[in-house]
Amino acid sequence: MRRFFRPIPLAISAIVLVGVYALVGFFLLPYIVKSRVIPSVSEQLGRPVLVQDVEINPFALSFTITGFEIQETDQSALLGFERLYVNFESSSLIRRAFRFDEITLAVPFVAVRIFPNGQLNLLELMKHSSGTAAPPENAAGAERQQEKKPLLPIEIGLLHIGSGIVEFRDESKRKPFEVSIVPIDIRLQNFTTQRGGESAYAFSAEVRKEELLNWEGYVSLDPLESEGKFSLTGVRGPVLWLYVKDRFNFEIPDGLLNINAHYRFDTTVEPFSLKLNDGEISLTNLVLTESGKDEAVISVPSFLIHGINVDVAQKTLDISSIESKDALFKGWMEKDKTVNFQTLFAPKPPDATEVPQKDAASTEAPAAPAEPRPWAVALKEIVFKNFGLDFEDRTTLTPVHHRITALNTTVRDLRVPFKEPIPMDLGFQLNDTGSVHANGTVGLKPFESSIHLSLSAIPLKPLEPYVEGAARVAVDSGQLDLNGDLHLAVEHSNAPMLTYNGNFGIRNLSISDRDGVSPLIGWKQLQLKQMALTVDPTTVTIEEVGLDQPAVQFRIQPDGQSNFSNIRPPSQTAEPAPEAASSQKKGPPPTVAVKTVKLLRGSATFIDESIRPAVRTGIHDLTGTIKGLSSKQLAKADVELTGRMDKVAPLKISGAINPLTENTFTDLLVKFENVDLTTAAPYSGKYAGYPISKGKLFLDLAYKVSKKQLEAENKVAIDQLTFGEKTDSPDATSLPVPLAVALLKDRNGRIDIDLPIRGDLNDPDFKYGKVVISTLLNLLTKIVASPFALMGKLIPGGGSGEDLQYFEFAPGSAIASDEDVKKADVLVKALAERPGLRLEITGTADPVRDRQALGFRKLSAEILARWTRDRGKSSADESIPAQEEQRLIKELYQQRRTLPASASEPSGTAASPVTPPTIEEMRRELAAAMPFDEEDLRALAHQRAEEIRNQLTADGKLAGERVYLVNEDISASDHERIRSKLGIAAS
């Protein structure tokens, strides 16, 4: 024993022991690792495991492995490292902790791979390393107990992982996804697993060039807690997007993501605490396109989220602000009314080749989990600046393009769940000229908004395609203005669904016919002031409606169609079935009240191009008010309007109306004065056969409508109506127009006509204009057919006028009776009232009665001549005594009897009766035998015509040029007295 502790043996033993220790450390242990351990690990993992070299320094207590690699079965690299250096501190042998001076892992790498069946290669590796035996039933409990044991005490002076590489490949996608994270650099100082120990650390990795992940702070493993800061900078959107792009219909070709935040993780509390503070997310130059296309649909140059605070345990998310500017969106709505953003962000259905990942061991449906507490989200402010939207509506026949620019919006105090209304402010430019601004609050559950809405100079031209289906018109110009307070509530049991209080207006409106490009309607300004509108129920109250310079143009085109009849497009939809129409419930009529309607300088133009020359006329400067419009049944609005016809003739409309009720009420007086009729000359030339060369029109129209019953009084006055030369129009009326005008025109050149109209507006066949024309034509026809009836009415006591159209004479006489003299006076007075008429006299003789009377007259003359001849002196002034007259008749009769039969009697005449004739019989026989010819009748007829003319023109009562004698009428008469007819013609 003593020999053993002698210096020399002791030194030799020490040297031998050190040598053995060195041999074992430097050579034996590396050999065992390489020849035994590595093959055993490879066999256990079922994969090739390679190592380049193993170095152990037993004196420095260091361990170095170089070129370590675990391969897949196809010999591709799975994981490994270039060099692992571990320096164990010798003091750990006498301390209660394992202390390492340094652990360095150089160029570690791992190839993470998801196979087409959805399995992860690392999980397969773990199954091989842990074996396939099923865990015991109480494995979960044992694991929890093991977790509660204190961690193995480890201290590391320096832990450095440098130039790490993570390669990720997902082959379960339609197109395999690959990404590499390099280099990964982790540096920890004074790392410990002992309770209460805190280790500062730093972590950095470059996913791709200039894509950096940095993490610094401290970590404590017992208990497990950590606090620090992390940042992810320069991450390009396409890289992240490649992994999920197969699920969506859009692509992200550009974009840069930056994330940074301060965190704290603590497992000492239950549940564990994870908080993020002062987080920030920024997106720059984000671009979204449709799959397979290059054009950007969404472009966001800048998107920032500031002040992100998350408490996972409390499920709260607080964000100070979200800011973005200069974003541009491009959208459209297809024919089926789907917006491109709907399909753009809608997830694609899973591919049939993708295998859903399910737990094969689980065969029973899990129990329904308890309803989790919802997250509370508070967002202080959202600010969007200078956004833009190009939107195309393709649902119309002609696509509509809308352009929104300078969109600025601010939303404050947004909280989820939505309990309180959200303050918001929104403004933008519409189609370059219009501006929209909304400011107020919006509630989401249930939806309710209260905003002040302002629209200024919204152009109406871009909205033209929306009326294509209903009217073929062109909106040439127009701007919409609106300024008021709007309230909308989806749930509104005790209030209207929508209310609006404010003003509404349309300026500089011009609508024209799309085909003819001729104006239809327009105005300078329409303003609805202090309008109160509600919906459900529907009510409208307007303080004032102002209409400045409204203009309507009604044009008859050369083909006879009006410009308004052409604006309705051909019907393309069938009428709804009667059952469907009847099933719709008809709600109560809306309540409408308009206090005042102000009309300023309105005009209505009528142009008829179907006639040559074209007719152009119209109403101008129509100005006035309508006060008290209301849908109440008993309400009546007062109307006072004035204007000018053709800018000269005064027009006045006054009365009361109620057009807003079901039983429309109208009581209006319309008065036109001094309207120039030469404007209508083309019409009169075509339809009357004579163009108007001069004339003025005056109208007094009274319209009353009550309970759909019309009563109209049309008083027409025409002054100095004068026609030009007759035309050859084939459309001219057969009525003698000049005569009708002359009959109607008084001594002052004025025509007065009353046309009362009555009708039932419920009658579908009732057309007011048609009834007026029909009534006028009937009146003119009656006047022309019975002109003397009109003449009789002109003079008090003129009677029916029927007896004014003839003078009666006794047979053989041409002397007017006292009654006819009075009749002549009536005619003279009537013709004085109608200076445009002339009288035509037809002298009449009866071949029977007048011939007999002329025979008696000739017989008396012959008897008188014989009596004076027998006495030898003239006694023309003396009357023949009765005895002498009888004697002379008998002598004359005897002389006629002694004449040959052929001379006195017709051939074959029977012999005279035996009884001698009386004196009267002799007189009649002698009178009938007097010589007679047709000229005698004509002379008598002419004498009668002259007698009538003398009665009319004597003493200058009637100008001779107004009385004409026409050819005599010696035909038979059915009257006891001979009637000489009178006729009326136009001068």
UniProtKB/TrEMBL annotation:
<feature type="region of interest" description="Disordered">
    <location>
        <begin position="897"/>
        <end position="917"/>
    </location>
</feature>
<keyword id="KW-0472">Membrane</keyword>
<feature type="compositionally biased region" description="Low complexity">
    <location>
        <begin position="360"/>
        <end position="372"/>
    </location>
</feature>
<keyword id="KW-0812">Transmembrane</keyword>
<dbReference type="GO" id="GO:0005886">
    <property type="term" value="C:plasma membrane"/>
</dbReference>
<dbReference type="Pfam" id="PF05359">
    <property type="entry name" value="DUF748"/>
</dbReference>
<protein>
    <recommendedName>
        <fullName>DUF748 domain-containing protein</fullName>
    </recommendedName>
</protein>
<feature type="transmembrane region" description="Helical">
    <location>
        <begin position="12"/>
        <end position="33"/>
    </location>
</feature>
<feature type="region of interest" description="Disordered">
    <location>
        <begin position="345"/>
        <end position="372"/>
    </location>
</feature>
<dbReference type="InterPro" id="IPR008023">
    <property type="entry name" value="DUF748"/>
</dbReference>
<keyword id="KW-1133">Transmembrane helix</keyword>
<dbReference type="InterPro" id="IPR052894">
    <property type="entry name" value="AsmA-related"/>
</dbReference>
<feature type="region of interest" description="Disordered">
    <location>
        <begin position="558"/>
        <end position="591"/>
    </location>
</feature>
<dbReference type="GO" id="GO:0090313">
    <property type="term" value="P:regulation of protein targeting to membrane"/>
</dbReference>
<feature type="compositionally biased region" description="Polar residues">
    <location>
        <begin position="559"/>
        <end position="574"/>
    </location>
</feature>
